[in-house]
Write a structure and sequence with these properties.
The complex is a heterodimer of chains A (about 150) and B (about 575). Chain A is of the alpha+beta class and about 150 residues long. Chain A contains five helices and five strands; from the N terminus they run ααααβββαββ. In chain A, helix 3 packs antiparallel against helix 4. By secondary structure, chain B is an all-alpha fold. Helix content of chain B is about 75%, strand content about 0%. The chains are: A alpha+beta (about 150), B mainly alpha (about 575). At the A-B interface, helix 5 of A face helix 18 and helix 22 of B.
């Protein structure tokens, strides 16, 4: 078990690209990083995405959000999921942060892909502003003041 | 022989006609009775189902009452056992505080005190408090050798409690330096990961300022040190959050099915809905409990001596290890009585509380348990308030996790299923099973339900309606009789006529019955639809009610978080 890891190694180890076992020390590190309160800027940006009509602006915001998550080193994030305020028939939308930077809306009848399904009931609740979905299957709802529920 | 013989057959014909009539009326009698039996059977069936439901309910409530009564009996036995086996310690405990108060007043002879302490020493073997009392008596007589010997004896029996005891006594007698030495000595012997329970006295002493400013400083510094060490270990922190979740879990309310009769019977997701509603209700109950903790003002007595006496009483009374197994049993029985025989909830609560009665416990868990049940450590509400304040981080994490878990299970829409048991018309007319979802608009669902009923009634009518096919056997019998009659002229003519008459009558009967059944079905169709529509609307309306209740209760998570974060320090 390596005790001294470089940040890029940590990324690889946590996504399991190198072997099955996840480094114990970096798992705790991951957990601690995920517990840090999200900045007000981040929460605001995610909320702004809903109201941004300009696609270039939306892309810029998405990229900024992706940078924020990368720099926090809380593990590889697949995307964010939150309630859609566009109105009927859309109920929620997904921000894909795993490289594609896509914004995809879903109606009540459609089911979101894989790990985002578990985030659906949280998106419906008033208590959470958005939900983070990680590649290891963890789903973390985030409140309006930025505090995560872990 | 030209005259033909004329046989007058009219009486025979009359006889046969009469026979046919009587036969016809008897058949219709039987038919009527069969019809009556069949409708009786249906109402009996409905009543039987009702009886079955009532009986099962009775069995359940009887079982709960039995458990409560059993628990009360066992509790009585356990308390008697505690009294019998450890009751004699009570005398020693009372003597210790009594002795100190007697010293204060100064109206008891040294000799008496000494004799009593010697008697207790002999009567309570292995008990640490007895030699400690002899030491106190010796001290009052100024007998140093005896005092030293007794202190060593007490120390060898239980070093921790002896140290704490003398720290408190010396402080009470205003020997501050010596009290600090004993206190230090006590602290040195402690391992924060496995404290013995009498440590709670120190928490109480800090709350009550029983050790004076330096003592308080010492305790607070040590506690802070330990918190740093222990909070670095994620398992211990996770364990605290789990305990707080257990506390929330134990504060769930109960949803009575009779408040949601339509929904309970009409939706297969009712158990899930009920479970989530009960979880959501925990917020308000927890708020109630901790608001009253926060707002209760426990007055401290003004005299330091009184406060120390209280601490001494706690120390000598609460923490004897031999009593723990019996006290744990008591907790289980009390939980069953409190939850009115609900074994599952009682066990969940008891499991959380019983952890407070472990022989050793780590410092964080000790404080967490004093936040839930201070009475299990004999400490006061002041200690409880401080403990809640210190556990704020764990409490909020637990609330977040608890809420997240039940929110993930709340369904967006539920299925509505009406089967043959929802009305007697449904079972009579072969309704089958109809299902829809609350996400389907009401008009659409109701139109669907009406169509379903139309199809069911149509099926019934088709099955019941008179067709010539159904009476083929009778026709065959009639034709056979007719033909046979012709073979046995001339009497056979009568027989064939009679056969035709009877068969005709039977066929007519059958047609009447079938037409009646069809008419009944048509008449019932509208009524049946109304009943089923009412059932559907009932489920729909109760689902809306359930959602309102859920939203109300769920929103209280924010209030609970506010209560915890705004806890006075």
């Amino acid at each position: 078990m390596r005790r001294v890891v470089r940040s890029s190694d940590q990324h690889q180890v946590s996504t399991g690209h190198q072997g099955r076992t996840v480094d114990q020390a970096s798992a705790r590190h991951l957990d601690r990083n995920r517990r840090v309160t999200r900045t007000a800027d981040l929460v605001e940006s995610v909320q702004r995405l809903d109201t941004t009509t300009d696609p270039a602006m939306a892309q810029a915001i998405l990229r900024w959000i992706q940078d924020e998550y990368d720099s926090r080193q809380g593990g590889v994030i697949l995307g964010l999921f939150s309630r859609c305020y566009l109105g009927a028939p859309y109920v929620d939308h997904r921000l894909d942060l795993s490289g594609g930077l896509i914004l995809e809306h879903f109606t009540g009848a459609e089911t979101p892909p894989g790990p985002f399904q578990a985030a659906r009931p949280f998106a419906r609740s008033d208590a959470y502003t958005f939900i983070e979905v990680y590649d290891d299957g963890t789903v973390i709802p985030v409140r309006a003041d930025g505090r995560p529920v872990i | 022989m030209a005259d033909s013989v004329r046989i007058d057959l009219s009486p025979i014909v009359r006889e046969i006609n009469g026979l046919a009539n009587r036969l016809g009326s008897q058949i219709s009698d039987v038919d009527y009775k069969v019809g009556a039996v069949s409708s009786d059977l249906q109402s009996t069936h409905a009543e039987l189902l009702q009886l079955k439901g009532d009986f099962e309910e009775f069995v359940r409530s009887n079982e709960r009452q039995r458990r409560v009564q059993l628990a009360e009996t066992r509790l009585g036995t356990l308390k008697a056992d505690l009294e019998r086996e450890y009751g004699h310690y009570g005398v020693v405990r009372r003597t210790s505080v009594g002795m100190l108060q007697a010293f204060d007043v100064g109206n008891v002879r040294n000799k008496t005190v000494h004799e009593i302490s010697e008697e207790l020493m002999i009567q309570t073997p292995k008990y640490w408090l007895a030699p400690a009392l002899v030491a106190l008596a010796a001290w009052s007589k100024d007998d140093e050798a005896l005092a030293t010997k007794s202190v060593e004896a007490a120390f060898s029996r239980d070093p921790k409690k002896t140290s704490l005891f003398f720290a408190l006594v010396l402080r009470r007698q205003a020997r501050l330096a010596e009290a600090s030495r004993w206190l230090n000595h006590y602290f040195l012997s402690l391992d924060p990961r496995s404290l013995t329970r009498e440590f709670a006295v120190l928490l109480e002493a800090t709350a009550q300022n029983g050790f004076g400013p330096e003592g308080r400083q010492l305790v607070l510094e040590r506690l802070e040190e330990w918190r740093e060490i222990l909070r670095d270990e994620p398992e211990i922190v996770t364990a605290q959050v789990q305990k707080w979740r257990g506390e929330l879990h134990n504060h769930r309310g109960s949803v009575d099915d009779s408040n949601f009769t339509f929904l309970a019977h009409g939706s297969p997701q009712w158990p899930q809905v009920k479970d989530v509603l009960e979880h959501a209700s925990a917020h308000q109950f927890t708020i109630d409990k901790y608001t009253s903790v926060r707002d209760t003002v426990a007055t401290l007595s003004s005299s330091v001596a009184d406060r120390l006496d209280d601490l001494l009483e706690i120390l000598v009374g609460e923490f004897d290890v031999e009593e723990l197994p019996l006290r744990r049993e008591v907790i289980y029985q009390e939980a069953i009585i409190e939850h009115d025989g609900d074994a599952a909830r009682a066990t969940q609560q008891a499991e959380l509380d019983v952890a407070a009665l472990d022989e050793t416990i780590d410092a964080l868990s000790l404080q967490t348990h004093t936040a839930f049940r201070p009475d299990l450590f004999g400490v006061s509400i002041n200690t409880q308030k401080i403990a809640v304040g210190a556990s704020a981080e764990d409490f909020t994490a637990a609330v977040g996790q608890f809420a997240r878990d039940y929110r993930g299970r709340w369904p967006d829409a539920v299925d509505i299923v009406l089967d043959e048991s929802h009305s007697s018309y449904a079972s009579t007319y072969g309704f089958g099973r109809w299902s829809t979802s609350t996400s389907v608009p009401q008009d659409q669902a109701e139109a669907n339900l009406r169509a379903h009923w139309d199809a069911a009634v149509q099926r019934y009518i088709d099955a019941q309606a008179f067709t010539w096919q159904k009476v083929i056997p009778q026709i065959i019998a009639g034709v056979a009789g007719f033909v046979l009659g012709f073979l046995i002229l001339p009497v056979g003519l009568i027989i064939s006529l009679a056969a035709v008459a009877i068969v005709g009558f039977l066929i007519y009967q059958k047609k009447q019955k079938a037409d009646a059944a069809v008419a009944d079905a048509e008449a019932a169709r509208e009524k049946a639809k109304v009943i089923s529509l009412d059932a559907y609307r009932g489920v729909s309306a109760e689902w809306v009610d359930a959602r309102i209740v859920y939203d109300e209760e769920d929103a209280k998570e924010a209030d609970l978080l506010q209560l915890v974060e705004g806890w006075p320090h």
